[in-house]
Amino acid sequence: MSVELPADADAVQTPEEIEAVLGDLVIGRDDHENAPGFIIKPDTVVDALDRLREQAGFDHLSCVTAQEYADRYESIYHLTSYGDRTKEVSIIVPTDKENPVSQSANEVFRTADWHEREAYDLVGIEYDEHPDLRRILLPETWQGHPLGQSYDQDRPQVVPLREHANPLKEDQQADEDDETMFLNIGPHHPATHGVLHIETVLDGEQVVDLEPDIGYLHRCEEQVCQNSTYRYQIMPYPDRWDYISAGLLNEWAYARTAEQLADIEVPEYAQVIRTMGAELCRMAAHFLALGTFALDIYGDFTALFMYSIRDREKVQNILEELTGQRLMFNYFRLGGVVWDLPEPREEFFEMTRDFLDELPTALEEYHDMMTSNEILQMRTVDTGVLPADVAKSYGATGPVARASGIDYDVRRDDPYGYYENLDWDVITEDGCDNFSRLLVRMREVEESAKIVEQCIDLLEDWPEDERNIQSNVPRTIKPDDDAEIYKAVEGAKGELGIYMRADGTEKPARFKIRSPCFSNLQTLPEMSNGEYVPDAIASLGSLDIVLGEVDR
Amino acid sequence: MSSDNQPFVTDSSKVGTETREARLAGQDNRFNSRLREAFGSSPFILTKFDKFMNWVRGSSMFMLQFGIACCSIEMMHTYAVKHDLDRFGAGVPRASPRQADVIIIPGTIVSKFAPRMKRVYDQMPEPKFVIGMGSCTISGGPFQEGYNVVKGAEEVIPVDIHVPGCPPRPEALVYGVAKLQERVANGESSPVTVKPYELEEFGDLERDEIVEQLADDIDVDDLVMRYNWGDSP
Ligand code: SF4
User: Fold this and answer.
1) Same-domain status, B149 and B206
2) What is the domain range of residue B227?
3) Chain B: residue whose CA lies nearest to A246
4) Is B69 at the interface with chain A, CB within 8 A?
5) CA–CA distance from A387 to each of A317, A377, A409 (Å)?
6) N or C: which terminal CB in chain A sees fewer CB atoms within 10 Å?
7) ipTM of predicted assembly, 2 dp
8) A56 near A84, Cβ under 8 Å?
9) Does any domain span residue A112?
10) Is there a contact between A16 and A28 (Cβ–Cβ < 8 Å)?
11) Given phi > 0 = left and psi -120 to 50 = alpha, else beta, which region is A328?
12) Residue B146 and residue A190: Cβ atoms within 8 Å?
């Protein structure tokens, strides 16, 4: 190789430089729409990822996609950098059809643990040296791998209820003379924010070991999207991934990916509307996070929970005016949005402005009752600590990462929509604890309000004849055969990415969702081991997961 | 569906369980009070007492705090300010199934969760009532095609009221609850059929190919549920 490598790892940028870092590991090239792609052998995964992290600054394993072709299996590691989101590379690891074994990346990036378990569960690739290769989303006794090509959906299955063994009945002690106790939390439990099951081993009141068990809401979103057409059928589904009013943010993830894949322009006016809608969604989602956090911490079902629902109702009213729905908006279309602002426009603007005007008072109330509340401070400051390097290794993003001092926000670092032209800040906190995560969310609500306000100003003065809400998009969209893309947006919980592979038809051949909650939830054991049970619950609340998005 | 090309499908008539039989027998005994059992026939006083009890039940319903998927967000809004289900005497969400009369099923049920949901339902004391919220609990809704999705709550537990929508608006849920209260107060209930997804001990399953395959992994007295995507409507 004649390429001169820069001394600083972060300066490695071009595909040639990346190739030089990988050196003789590269056995081929298969570029994606968003990033260069290098093919490597299945037994050099650790080596390759380690080199990329150490020498080229790729410290964020965003996603692992697995898929089956007619002649091979393939795992794709989508790498990027916390310092520079536009720097991306895909590492493609083909494995052979008969014996699909590939080396696990767990040693380099801890986040690979769950991602590879999912790949094993749904597609059937086995990972060598993986610490714990079990099914993750489907029941353990499931037969077959549903996203593999030979899966027969009509086959019956038998699902056991084993984990539900009553812990008190047999006093499930870990060992004869051990003092620990095994405790099931969930899947039906008010503090798990849905249907999450946590297996905990306790020593007195302290958590010795804790393991989230997910998959109780695995609704086959990827399969459903693979069976739907790009143009209209996929768009309603993203609303149901992160269903805490974050619908537009999720729709944007799909819109952004598909628009880039199929080369579709979006009119500027539509981008402003999108930005405004998305930030309203973020506010609604964060309000619920605040309310339920208070509920988890001091069982406050009366004041704070109701306050946050009150504010959500206001946002939902605005969004209903805009989109026609309270929760499942289905408002974006490829190339724009489905309809213009509601008429009379002045009324809509006034309604939104009223909400924004009242927001500072409302936030003050929240601060009075939460952040300056002594009980809450005692419960949250310095509990559930997640250091920045651990967070990075688990691929944490969104408010969880920003509360650990990681200055990372896809809206700013890999701009889309109208964010670039607006004036707002990325919020970070250095506390790394439950309190910081709460604080980040509260301050992000303010930033979102700033963005919405600027969008309203822009929309009010937009020239009447340029109010173009959708570009010309063909009725059927058929991206080129074998085009692959991975793109992400900043969802309410963090980096929400989508990988799509086209096969020349009007439906994607592979549709993979990178859910921020999935990666964020993986940090829970790190935060809770050694802490008290109530602190583990507080940490879970501060992660603000949505099971619909974790399990997809 | 013909059973010739589907060797694994168990004939649903062979999967009988107590709940199913009780419901299928046509007589819904959820309203029978102990007193009535003791006296045998129904003298005037006890009939009046039953009526009174039904009115009491309908006027004060304890809901189970039970969230599954997207519909549970709208369910929370139904409980909270603005819609305030409490106005109708049905707004006390209980965290434990042992204290609840009504379970609202707000979301998609998947194979892994179905047996747990059945367990929660079984833990509720009689008489108990079920409200299915959203399309998912009717048919699997938008996810009906999913390989892992149970096509409706009625496959697992009997449902008294279905509230359609995706998600239903809070007003719709309030209406559904009000309807249920009306029915309970009148002592009516719907004839319900529970289809074959019941919990059984593994050893009691009919031995077919899939059971043979799993014989090493599952103990005979483990509780299991059959999940059969292809054979449900
Ligand atoms: S009916 Fe719709 S909103 Fe309700 S759980 Fe199902 S998908 Fe979600």
Assistant:
1) no
2) 197-231
3) B70
4) yes
5) 39, 19, 18
6) N
7) 0.83
8) no
9) yes
10) no
11) beta
12) no
Domain span at residue A84 reads 9-128
Question: Which one of A101, A128, A155 terminates a domain?
Answer: A128
A416 and A532: one domain?
yes
The CA–CA distances, whole Å, from A189 to A45, A296, B68 equal 39, 12, 11
Q: How far apart are the first and last CA of chain B?
A: 10
Complete DSSP assignment for A256-272: HHHHHHHT----HHHHH
Residues of B in contact with A193 (CB under 8 A): 67
Place of tokens 């697992």: B156
Kindly report the pTM of this predicted structure. Answer: 0.85
Give the span between the Cα atoms of A86 and A63, in whole angstroms: 15
Q: Which residues contact A42 (CB under 8 A, 6 or more apart)?
A: A93, A94, A95, A101, A102, A103
User: Looking at chain A from residue 210 to 269, which residues have their Cβ under 8 Å from any Cβ of chain B?
Assistant: 215-221, 223-224, 227, 236-237, 239-240, 243-245
Query: One digit per residue, pLDDT tens: chain B, 233 residues?
Result: 333 444 444 444 544 445 555 544 544 455 555 555 665 555 555 667 777 877 887 788 888 888 888 888 888 888 888 888 888 877 777 888 888 888 888 888 888 888 888 888 888 887 788 888 988 888 888 888 888 888 888 888 888 888 888 888 888 888 888 888 888 888 776 555 555 566 777 777 777 777 777 777 777 777 777 777 776 66
- The number of beta carbons lying within 10 Å of the beta carbon of residue A434 is 29
Please tell me whether the peptide bond between A344 and the residue prior to it is cis, using omega within 30 degrees of 0: yes
- Is residue B5 assigned to a domain? no
What is the residue type of A386? L
Look at residue B85 and tell me if it is in a domain.
Answer: yes
- The count of domains in chain A is 2
Do residue A266 and residue A370 come from a single domain?
Answer: yes
Q: Please state the length of chain A.
A: 552
Residue B133 lies in a domain: yes
CA distances from A217 to A37, A117, A380, A520, A547 (A): 33, 17, 29, 17, 7
**A66–chain B nearest CA distance, Å:** 18
Q: How far is CA B183 from the centre of its chain?
A: 17
Give dist(CA A235, CA A230) in Å, integer.
8
| Cβ-defined contact of A188 to B205 (cutoff 8 Å) | no
CA A500 to chain centre: 16
What length is written for chain B?
Answer: 233
Structure tokens at A198: 């946590």
Tell me which of A109, A128, A147 is where a domain ends.
A128
In whole angstroms, how far apart are CA A291 and each of A271, A284, A296, A328, A542? Answer: 30, 11, 9, 21, 11
Q: Is B224 helix (H, G, I), strand (E, B) or coil?
A: strand
Listed in order, strand segments (DSSP E) in A129-263 are 157-160, 180-185, 197-203, 206-213
B130 lines ligand 1 (CB under 6 A): no
**Would B224 be classed as within a structural domain?**
yes
Are B110 and B224 within one domain? no
B-chain residues within 8 Å CB-CB of A305?
80
